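User: quick one, fold this
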Amino acid sequence: MDALAELLDGPRARGALLLRMVMEPPWSVRIEDRAPLCLMAATGGEVWIVPDGDTGPVRLRPGELAVARGPEPYTVAGRPDTEPRARIGPGGTCATLRGEPLSQSMELGVRTWGNAPDGSATVLVGTYLLDGEISVRLLDALPPLLVLPAGGRTGPLLTLLGDEIARDEPGQSLVLDRLLDLLLVAALRTWFSRPGAEPPAWYVALGDPVVGLALRLLRDEPAHPWTVAALAARAGVSRAALARRFTELVGEPPMAYLTGRRLALAADLLRETDATVEAVARKVGYSQAFAFSTAFKRVRGVSPQEYRKGGGLPEQQGSLRGDRGAATLEP
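Assistant:
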């Protein structure tokens, strides 16, 4: 697995929120959904993204793709100075700023939402709703907001997504999830291949002959009873040399990295399978469920059982589902 593939080893869309927003000026929508990642593409009209804080508004021209990293809020509007008239909350809930529900009144068809059926501004939106520790390394690699130029690798995928997003066919949600994943991969390939790219330390470390090997061993065999000495032996260096070099390049010691990866994998297993807590613990390298549960709660703030029941999941009721600084890559 190459460095970019490692970076993209999560998130994977599972029931992502995808819709086409159709708006007629004046319009402005406050995004406070705390979603980990959102992709937006303007397909017509004037669209501005206004991050919170000192960063100025960013114009999204037709064909351009924006990737917004959560959970910080931001505003999407026809003009940067237009006051928000709607608020998107966790899980895609939509209401006025006073809390009055808007989802049904602004529903315009299958995965289509807005204030006018023939509005001059259209935006394709794809949002990863679930927060997962595997994706934390991806999120850390991105600025709060990045904008990619029209065309390039993302152009054909945006065209296909625009064709598919309003279809109502068997398995359509799965098709859209995979399209969103492909669009994200294409966006990140473009972003990290640009001049002056600054990928995260662990991403760069994958190219190191010693630390890269250790990272791959920890990734491929997380349940193995690794020690720094065992990793060093496999990498052909001393224990002290590996510990020092790993910490310098990755930013944390090998065993801290391993613990984070084990708990991230466990979080996915708890959400995606019906395996018992004991089975999940063994699968990620814990011999005792108690030790696993203690470590999990320390990191996640909830027990594995509570997490499986939905601890930390955004509310889905009344949602649009219907069934931070900015960076711009110039063409």
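User: anything notable?
Assistant: The first strand starts at residue 17 and ends at 23.
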